[in-house]
Design goal:
Blueprint: H1 13-38, H2 53-62, E1 68-72, H3 76-81, H4 86-93, E2 117-121, H5 127-141, E3 147-152, H6 159-171, E4 175-181, E5 184-185, E6 188-189, E7 212-215, H7 219-234, E8 240-245, H8 263-270, H9 274-284, H10 289-311
Parallel strand pairs: 1-2, 1-3, 3-4, 4-8, 7-8
Antiparallel strand pairs: 5-6
Helix pairs in contact: 1-2, 1-9, 1-10, 2-7, 4-10, 5-6
Length: 335
């Protein structure tokens, strides 16, 4: 078990302020996305990361622009943390033509190859072998790229999870498997249907990997542990599996009020909210209140501007139905 507590040092205060801004921006984005859902701007459902922002911010800070992110359907935060602007993500949630994927992907399929975001996947665990494929390509081509595959605790009992870990370990692939363990697999407590206490980390030894468990609500710890794992992968020492303990503040999706969770459990985790916790740490390290307030005001203005720009986008027409069906951008059947 690896657990690293890292206090901000003056030499890297700028990076830590940037990490706070990232977490705060992710929270404000998701909060606005929820409001837009209630106002019927966001069609269908959406899966928010409120409460889990430290993971997306910490891991993204440890990655290089050339590295790859593979996310689940709860992928808004991971997409934004890699540098994708808010406007096209808001617009994609609304199904608008100015969306990240022209409104065709929606909340659960965010992708931006330009930013290393290689897709959000709605099929549980389906992206883990795909991340192995990307890592294998980096190994084959001799680049130093690393793939980071995020998954929830609900993925650990899926066959693809075990197949991907075995493949990555045998081939010593540069891939990081990152479990966001928020204790609940949709509406079922993970511990009720899983044979081990730590659903991802307790299986690591079966594939010759270290059992790494971290506080997923501490962005510094996430950053430090992920940085070591990525450095190890770049050096050719193979994959790592990290299990981060965290908690979603709301239900599984916007259609879920989350009433099945005990009130005392919710209260316990709300007290571990990563954002006020990190904010207090910065203040204690010497960052001024006025500087943090200025950052928060900037983020709030960005969210407002992005919201209005996204709303101004057009609604997709029939001309987009068959566009981008094939790799060449067309729709003609190729045999």
């Amino acid at each position: 078990m690896a657990s690293t507590k890292v206090a901000p040092a003056q030499s890297d205060v700028a990076q830590k302020i940037a990490m706070y801004k990232s977490q705060f921006a992710l929270r404000q984005f998701e909060t606005r996305a929820y409001d837009l859902f209630l106002e019927n701007y966001v069609k269908g459902t959406s899966h928010l990361s409120i409460g889990q922002e430290a993971i997306a911010a910490g891991v993204a800070a440890a990655m290089r622009p050339t590295d790859w992110t593979f996310a689940t359907y709860r992928g808004h935060a991971h997409t934004l943390a890699r540098g994708v602007p808010m406007t096209p993500v808001f617009a994609e949630l609304m199904g608008r033509t100015n969306g990240l994927m022209a409104g065709k992907g929606g909340s659960m399929h965010l992708t931006s190859v330009e930013h290393g975001v290689m897709g959000s996947y709605a099929i549980i665990g389906a992206h883990l072998p795909i991340a192995c494929g990307a890592a294998w390509s980096a190994q084959y081509r001799g680049t130093d790229q690393v793939a980071v595959a995020f998954f929830g605790d609900g993925s650990v009992n899926i066959g693809a999870f075990h197949e991907a870990l075995n493949f990555a370990a045998v081939w010593k692939l540069p891939v990081i498997f990152f479990c966001e363990n928020n204790l609940w697999m949709e509406y079922t407590r993970t511990s009720d249907v899983t044979a081990v206490v730590n659903p991802a980390a307790d299986r690591a030894s079966a594939y010759g990997l270290e059992s790494i468990i971290i506080d997923g609500n501490d962005a510094d710890e996430v950053y430090e542990v992920t940085s070591r794992a990525i450095a190890r992968a770049r050096a050719g020492d193979g994959p790592s599996m990290i299990e981060a303990k965290t908690y979603r503040h709301g239900g599984h999706s916007r259609a879920d009020p989350g009433k099945y969770r005990p009130a005392e459990e919710i209260a316990e985790w709300m007290a571990k909210d990563p954002i006020p916790r990190y904010r207090l740490r910065l203040l204690e390290s010497g960052v001024s209140e006025s500087e943090l307030l200025e950052i928060e005001a900037q983020v709030n203005a960005e969210v407002d501007d992005a919201t209005e720009a996204a709303k101004a986008g057009g609604v997709p027409g029939e001309d987009l139905l068959m566009k981008d069906v094939w790799a060449d951008g067309g729709a003609a059947w190729r045999n």
